[in-house]
Design a protein that fits this description.
Elements: H1 5-17, H2 19-25, E1 32-35, E2 39-43, E3 53-57, H3 69-77, H4 79-90, E4 94-101, E5 113-119, H5 138-158, H6 175-180, E6 181-186, E7 190-195, E8 204-208, H7 220-240, E9 245-253, E10 264-270, H8 290-301, H9 328-344
Antiparallel strand pairs: 1-2, 2-3, 3-5, 4-5, 4-9, 6-7, 7-8, 8-10, 9-10
Helix pairs in contact: 3-7, 4-8, 5-7
The chain binds zinc ion.
């Protein structure tokens, strides 16, 4: 997304007040567990679960669509390596990656970040135990199914990928999903569906066609593509269904709310005061020493290094598809509104 001079000025102002920018700059002490030139991971000082880690870009971006492609790939490409390190450090069987887009979805600061929550059976964390009883009207399913491939096509035109030629194959572990849902987008690496009954109308599930269960087994490029898809799904429901915010919740590996340990990203449309309020938690004081948790994770993260060569090199292909953009003006307005929403909190 191109930032106008007005937005740039607004961001510079926001940045001066940003607590995470201060933590990143070292003006406030942080429990840092990993960093490189572009990204930084630190323990949440009010953890909801042991090993609760915040991962962010060092540059200040309030929302996901502002992150430039190069940084997006670097950042989300590191998710598998960080997951592996956190799971090893905490000795957990599963992980959640949690993202709140907008105030109504629980975004508390205007510095975009993701939460890593290490999970295991019996950990007592039930926020992501969804009651699936909402369905989406046929006409709205059509809006999402028509526009999702258009957005992804636009993405591939901006960021060509040599591996992408079409819909790809169906791994056997996903055959049941095709039967019980409506497919809204698929390519060689991801399958995006609307379940007949979701946690909210417009709930989208995104599966990896590369890996059934463990996010840490994905390559940099596969992980970045999975999160690109989730980001577009979030923008799609935000715009297409006119909701107030979105949550992106990745489940991977076993926990009480994911007994088979399947890898899936849930994109949840959020409205002010909807019945998904219990997804977001209140800050808690830890009853254990955060420094010892930080050192256990740091013992595993020191060898993480982002390498470009794990990415697939792009090949530019001519395009013959006529694509209708979904109202860029309204995207801009909605995002501005979302930023204001965050600032209110
Ligand atoms: Zn910031």
């Amino acid at each position: 997304m191109q930032l106008t001079p007005e937005i740039k000025a607004q961001l510079a102002e926001q940045k001066k007040q940003c607590i995470f920018c201060k933590l990143i700059a070292g003006e406030i002490e942080a429990k840092t567990v990993f960093q490189d030139d572009v990204t930084i991971a630190m323990l949440d000082i009010n953890p909801i679960i042991k090993g609760h880690t915040l991962f962010m870009l060092k540059e200040h971006y309030p929302i996901m669509p502002y992150i430039p492609a190069g940084e997006f790939t670097h950042y989300f490409g590191l998710v598998p390596a960080l997951t592996h390190a956190i799971k090893e450090g905490i000795l957990s069987t599963g992980i959640n990656v949690f993202i709140a887009n907008g105030g109504p979805a629980g975004q508390r600061a205007p510095h975009f970040l993701i939460h890593f929550l290490p999970r295991e059976n019996g950990d007592g964390f039930f926020n992501f135990m969804f009651k699936k009883n909402a369905s989406l009207e046929e006409e709205n399913i059509k809006i999402l199914a028509n526009n999702f491939p258009i957005m992804m096509n636009n993405h591939f035109q901006r960021n060509p990928a040599s591996w992408h030629t079409g819909k790809g194959n169906v791994p056997s572990y996903l055959t049941g999903i095709y039967e019980s849902t409506t497919v809204v987008y698929e390519d060689e690496k991801v399958l995006c569906v609307i379940p007949h009954k979701g946690a909210a109308p417009g709930h989208i599930e995104i599966y990896s066609k590369i890996e059934e269960k463990n996010i840490e087994k994905l390559s940099v490029d596969d992980s970045a593509h999975l999160f690109y898809t989730a980001s577009f799904a979030a923008t799609l429901v935000f715009e297409g269904l006119k909701v107030h915010g979105t949550n992106i919740i990745l489940k991977s590996g076993t926990s009480d709310d994911n007994p088979q340990g399947k890898l899936c990203i849930h994109v949840l449309p959020r409205m002010q005061n909807d019945n998904l309020q219990n997804i977001v938690w209140e800050p808690k004081q830890p009853k254990y020493d955060l420094n010892s948790v930080a050192s256990k994770i740091k013992d595993k993260t020191w060898k993480i290094k982002y390498t470009e060569e794990t990415k697939v090199s792009p090949i530019v292909k001519p395009s013959v598809i006529q694509i209708k953009e979904i109202t860029p003006k309204s995207t801009f307005d909605e995002i501005q509104k979302a930023i204001k929403e965050i600032q209110k909190d």
